[in-house]
Amino acid sequence: MFFRQGGAGTPPASVVVFRAGPVSGLSIAVVLRLGQRARPPYLHPMAKTPAGTPQNPGGAERFNEERAAYTVSSAKPDLEGGVQAIREVVKVLKPSPGVYRMLDTRGEVLYVGKARSLKARVANYTQIAGLSGRLLRMVSQTRSMEIITTNSEAEALLLEAQLIKRFRPPFNVLLRDDKSFPFILLRADHAFPRIQKHRGARRAKGNYYGPFASAGSVNTTLNALQKLFLLRSCTDSFFNNRDRPCLLYQIKRCSAPCVGRIGEADYDTLVRQAKDFLSGKSGAVQADLERQMAEAAANLDFETAAILRDRLRAATFIQGSQAINAQGLGDADVFALAAKNGQMSVQSFFIRGGQNWGHRALFPRHTNDVEEAQVLADVMLQFYEEVPPPPTILVDRDLPECELIEAALSELAGRKVRISVPERGDRRKLMMQAQRNAVEALERRLAETGTKARLNRELAEFLELDTPPQRIEVYDNSHIQGTKAVGAMIVAGPDGFEKGQYRKFNIREAQTNDDFAMMREVMARRFRNFAEGEENPDAKQGGHETLLPDLILIDGGKGQLSSVMRVLTEIGIADEIAVVGVAKGPHHGRDGREVFHFPDGREKMLPVNSPLLFHLQNLRDEVHRYVIGAHRAKRSKAITASPLDEIPGVGPARKRALLLHFGTASKVRAAALEDLQRAPGVSATVARKVYDFYHAGG
Predict the structure, then answer these.
(1) Each residue of 180-207: pLDDT tens digit?
(2) Is this prediction's pTM over 0.85?
(3) Distance between CA atoms of 619 and 622, rounded to whole angstroms?
(4) Helices and strands in the chain: count of H runs, count of E runs
(5) Rounded Cα gap, residues 350 and 404, in angstroms
(6) H helix or E strand, kind and range, residue 206
(7) SS3 labels along 471-485
(8) 372: nearest Cα among 419, 420, 338, 410
(9) For 376-414, how does the pLDDT look when each residue is reduced to its tens digit (9 = 90+)?
(10) Greatest extent of the chain over all pairs of C-alpha atoms, in Å
(11) DSSP-derived secondary structure letter, 252
């Protein structure tokens, strides 16, 4: 429904009501709409928009986080206007379960909440006397709302977590470390299934085992599993084109089914054993291997006995590296929270089949004025948007609405999920271990944050900045005699490198061996949206194009620095950003001394053992690593490129047909039109395109 309220200088309040089915297959329809104007694009909750925008669930996280910060800083607070807008919404709400979104003047999401009764819950925001400071700030920026009704409160809880992860609102608790977790995938779409590491959506047919806490832990387990079960890890194309065993067979990490060294029935036995082992039946697998080894030794087949012995050692290694007090737990996750100095840490343990598959410390954001138990509940719900919930979840405190959370996770998992606080026995010992890890992780985090804050203060003092920089951008370029030139930008914030903000620039114009021209092109493209008198088409996208850094570090000396200042001056932002050039010092930098060049011509140096110098060198080295990697990737791509790739309108199949017929690209270039037309699979139209491309002059 659309309702609008007039008022001088106040945007109209609006509410849109939707009906949602089950969250897993969400279907939304507008129930009723009143008003004259068309519905703004930002009020389509599931609309397809360009990648990188907060509206897109698959958009890049970096844009959503920056948009959240931008929303808070740019909205004009008006508590009375916010309360009045919410009151207009309450008039049309019903006491049904659902999810609501608070929107600011631009339609950006400020807060996502769920309710058993939407009417009662939203009405609470008009009682400002009972609101915390955080909620008062939110209400003061609210100008409209968006409502989605659901069939149950459990569905509303799941949808709330989904929308929080999508929009990353500034007034919700956010699980920042929500990168996808790695799994082990045992595929089921081949006669000889492949075992591999997997990230992302679980679309491939097969059995998934995880999550693992890190890529390192899953790689270690995979290596041991290859020794234990000799399952193939190669791609199907590699498998289909082998005529002799590869190196993995020689080092006893594969049974070589590609060349018939093992039959399908025996390979199926290995696959079954792997499934049993990964599902927690490791004891039965080990007993079977021990029996086979004893039989081989009794039959004097010592070579087979040695292979089985090595496989048993691999099984022992996996169990030893995953040892933890998890007997009888089966599949379970453990969560413990620690809080200190306004920051919180949530330690998570992953137990699968009674084995420890790793642990990770999570650091939620926007936790001020939020109860610790509520923070833990919010973190868990967002965490299980990416990871399937296990049957058992152990927590270190009672959660608000624990039964509702259990119902929501059970619906998400398709089976019963139970949340409990262990009081005694092995489970209590495991929880105490998780609590110790949470405290230690938070202390490390605080120590690192304190060190970085101190370095930032020293950096501001050394570079004569008014305040410590919150966003530092470092630039460099890489090329070989002007060819395959690439520019790069890395970003560092108060908490370290912001790798989601990194950018590469393929140099298009300055293709000569001119570092200065390349740097000018990179700067012009990076800051083109800030040119005076130009519209900013990306202003509502929340991208890095809308953000000005506090400090720019240039890898180079006076020449590169003057090139950058020239571009920034032309754009009109030279006075808004501090710019410093970092050049190699005496003896070409071999003594570890860098010279820092300022736009006014001054130069500064730091002592060799200065922590600040190490920090700046780390920034410089990071941009070196990033730009050189981008340059190497571009060179590698060029090596495998074909001259036929440049012909417009000719796809891979026809390029392959031309190369098979003529042998080389040079012969395709020299072929007459009639010869091109006689090539199998090449039509007269395609032949004409190829001929005209190489004979543009007739």
Answers:
(1) 678 889 898 888 999 888 887 778 888 8
(2) no
(3) 5
(4) 21, 23
(5) 23
(6) strand 206-209
(7) CEEEEEEEEECCEEE
(8) 338
(9) 999 999 888 878 898 999 999 999 999 999 999 998 888
(10) 96
(11) T
